[in-house]
Amino acid sequence: DLFRYPALVPFMDWRDDRLPNKPDNLAFEWTDTGEVTITWDPPLPAEGVPEQRRFAVYRIRSSSVPDFDVALQNPSNLLRVTGETTIKDYPPAATDPYYYVVTSVSRNSVESFESDYIVLEARAVGTEDVPVVESFSVAQNYPNPFSESTTIAIDLAVTGNLHVRVYNAIGQLVAVLANGDQVAQGEHLVTWDGTSMSGGRVASGTYFYAVEIGGHRVTRPMVVSR
């Protein structure tokens, strides 16, 4: 499954291969049951150091502090690639804590060293108040490719809070189709009309829709053809 995890574009060795500086002041705040906001500061500009264009956010589940050199090579640990300095996450219920780090990514997709890590423990373990989705399925959007609108079918095994977001090919958030809406068990149809959060029509290209519920996330590609 080529689209199971987010990914960075490989760097081109004939271009600038210098490392950008790493992000600073990684922090988190629980904003809702099961939802956490991760924030960080971009590195300060420095002469002779390439400017970061994006950030790669990693989430690693481990019983102890992981070897980040090894962990960052595992594509399943790459949570998001974004141009922003904050994300929201819904870590699945687990007995082991989650470690988060962020790297800067240059124009040539060269990553910096990782930031200092943060670790989330207290709410990473499920309780009776946090429903955990045992299974759900996400169909490929239809039609695909599309020019005007497309529909995503989501089949839920239990009631939960649904998040559906659309990202472009470099990980920037384009549209929010469901923002924590409480939905019942069964099939639900979510439609995207091909417009961005600013209301304009998006350009032709490949986009990704991410469906999250109960800390579980499924990402699939879709193509806009104008």
Describe it for me?
This protein is mostly beta strands. Helix content is 2%, strand content 45%. Strands 4-3-6-7 form a four-stranded antiparallel β-sheet, with no helix packed on it. It has a four-stranded antiparallel β-sheet with strand order 11-10-13-14, with no helix packed on it. The chain has a three-stranded antiparallel β-sheet with strand order 1-2-5, with no helix packed on it.
Distance between the termini: 27 Å
Count the strands? 14
Averaged pLDDT = 82
Strand order of the largest sheet: 4-3-6-7
Shape: globular
Give the proportion of residues in helices: under 10%
Keywords:
mainly beta, single chain, 226 residues, four-stranded antiparallel β-sheet
Task: Describe this structure in a few short sentences.
The protein is mainly beta. 2% of the residues lie in helices and 45% in strands.
Helix-strand blueprint:
Layout (H helix, E strand, L loop, with lengths): L23 E9 L2 E7 L10 E10 L6 H4 L6 E5 L3 E4 L8 E9 L11 E3 L15 E3 L11 E7 L3 E8 L5 E11 L2 E7 L12 E9 L2 E9 L2
Antiparallel strand pairs: 1-2, 2-5, 3-4, 3-6, 6-7, 8-9, 9-12, 10-11, 10-13, 13-14
